[in-house]
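Progress note, sequence design subtask.
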């Protein structure tokens, strides 16, 4: 299967070079693919550093470094890379059959890319397949999930035995089996997308700045008739949070940034409507308040990175944006009518 790999960089040039080293080893072992590294206007010398590393190591035959021109977010950068890859073709210049999105804070274990390509090649019904994600010591990280729902918002916030057992069907991150399994969505840290699935569902929605863009893409691909799977034979080390500064392993939890809440709201509103998005927000807010109360009683609480104010502020921004958009559309329609009449 003809594959191109997309890596989006924002001020993590050193990590990207480490990732490229791991990919160079795969090429040396007989794999064939092309890599596109997109710099999202890092402004810290990353672009020159990446171009220099590619030239220094002789990677220019299989790796392109592209300047995105601005930092439009993770989805935007991946779309720049995917468009470039589709136009350029694979390592031999032939049309690509699959696009592998790979985080800058990852490196691949031997055979990781090959395993994903083989899985897609052998299962015509699969549109996206994700890797098994690992810590550097080999312990497994969750990388495949169910879709978020009202029930999962409650369970995810409380994380309380009786509640989790009652809502077990809606737990977003269930324990993974040993073999490949069909899932709702896989993380964008390492996912391979069939070109035909992209043609059917479209590229990533760059209205998301960061987070939920891969969930949105998997949902659209699934709605277009394709299956989503995880293949644990593809093993990728993910240095969690190194590219974003959020949820770093062993670090004290940090509050979610505003764009996380905005992406969350966009996902629910876009895919399920405003009423459902409000229901999800209400469930999360109630669960946050309940978890604070339980924390005082039991000496523990649920997800401490989330806040009611963050959820409500995102809803308010969404409502204001919709109103502004409606006013703009009305104004454009009015202007068009006058122009047409004249």
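Output:
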């Amino acid at each position: 299967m003809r594959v191109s790999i997309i890596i989006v960089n924002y001020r993590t040039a050193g990590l990207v070079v480490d990732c490229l080293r791991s990919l160079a080893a795969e090429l040396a072992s007989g794999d064939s693919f092309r890599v596109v590294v997109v710099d999202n206007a890092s402004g810290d010398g990353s672009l020159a550093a990446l171009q220099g590393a590619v030239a220094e190591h002789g990677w220019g035959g299989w790796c392109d470094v592209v300047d995105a021109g601005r930092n439009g977010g993770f989805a935007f950068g991946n779309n720049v890379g995917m468009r470039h890859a589709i136009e350029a073709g694979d390592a031999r210049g032939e049309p690509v059959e699959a696009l592998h999105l790979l985080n800058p804070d990852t490196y691949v274990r031997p055979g990781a890319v090959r395993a994903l390509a083989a899985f897609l090649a052998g299962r015509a019904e699969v549109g996206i397949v994700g890797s098994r994600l690992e810590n550097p010591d080999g312990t497994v990280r969750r990388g495949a999930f169910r879709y978020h729902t009202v029930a999962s918002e409650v369970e995810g916030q409380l994380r309380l035995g009786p509640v989790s057992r009652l809502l077990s069907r809606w737990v977003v991150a269930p324990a993974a089996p040993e073999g490949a399994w069909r899932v709702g969505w896989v993380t964008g840290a390492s996912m391979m997308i069939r070109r035909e699935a992209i043609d059917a569902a479209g590229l990533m929605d760059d209205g998301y700045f960061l987070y939920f863009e891969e969930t949105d893409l998997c949902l659209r691909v699934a709605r277009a008739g394709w299956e989503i799977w995880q293949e644990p034979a593809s093993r990728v080390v993910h240095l969690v949070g190194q590219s974003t500064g959020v949820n770093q392993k062993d670090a004290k939890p940090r509050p979610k940034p505003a764009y996380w809440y905005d992406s969350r709201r966009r996902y629910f509103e876009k895919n399920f409507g405003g009423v459902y998005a409000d229901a999800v927000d209400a469930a999360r807010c109630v669960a946050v308040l309940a978890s604070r109360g339980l924390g005082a009683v039991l000496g523990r609480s649920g997800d401490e990175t989330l806040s009611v104010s963050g959820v409500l502020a995102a809803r308010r921004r969404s409502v204001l944006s919709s109103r502004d958009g409606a006013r703009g559309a009305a104004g454009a329609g009015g202007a068009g009518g006058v122009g047409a009449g004249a």
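The longest helix spans residues 308-341. Work on this subtask will continue into the next period as scheduled.
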